Amino acid sequence: MTTRRAYDLALLAALAVSVLLYLVPQFFFVRQSLYGNLGMGQIGTELTLANYKTLLTDRFYLQAFVRTLALSGAATIAGLLIAAPTAYFLARLRAAWVRWLIVLLLISSFVSIVVKVLGLTMLLGNNGPIPAALRMLTGGWWSASLLNNGTAVVIGLVQYTLPLLVMLLFGVIQNIPASLEEAALVHGASDWRLVRRVLLPLAWPGLVTAGLISFNMNMGAFTSAVLLGGGNVLTLPVLIQRKMILEVDYPTAAALSVLLTLAVVIINLVALALPSNRASTIEVAA
Predict the structure, then answer these.
(1) What is the mean pLDDT of the chain?
(2) What is the CATH number of the domain that holds 277?
């Protein structure tokens, strides 16, 4: 009992320190967003909501916000569509070398995002192998660029989160007994009906959780947008960096960051109602 109490106290102490380290910087961060920008890095002394009023009414910033949401959502959906079948295949594959594939995925997730993006730049560049293959397959008709646009950013975001998605969904699929699938097939269920009636309802909470983690990472991703977008794809993280480094406008950068954080938090809170409701809806509808 004494050991358990000491363990609980240690966890509470770690939680308190974590909350303190998170809330204190956030407090000063939010407060800075409430001051005016006087130019050249100078900040006003009076509290004002002018920064938020500008950001929420200026069409340029609203378009950047919608663009960030759209690219993050597209990358999340594409990542789930790739990761789910991959995780299912690995989870149901009864081979000793599967663990080494998981280890390779884990190692790949530790590779610097800058290195990954630079590799993508070489693959997607006009002289890279992917555009060359597209030109060959289309008889020279393909001439569009795969860099410096939203498509390149989505590809970079998918590459950024895919290893984590596969590992998360691998654990989800492993917790679904294969005997349930066998029983459904024995009773005459088709593959599609098996996915719809058995796998999807059981895996739905894990899919939502993995999707939210991927979406959160994509919303805050900076490197993929700035390097693969080539300055043409202005997402909120890119604008925050420009405000801080190029324009030395710390209050506006802070306000953009606060709005980005609030948007992510609200989306996550709304999605909390989806797992249980969606699972039951699928089962009833089927």
Answers:
(1) 85
(2) 1.10.3720.10
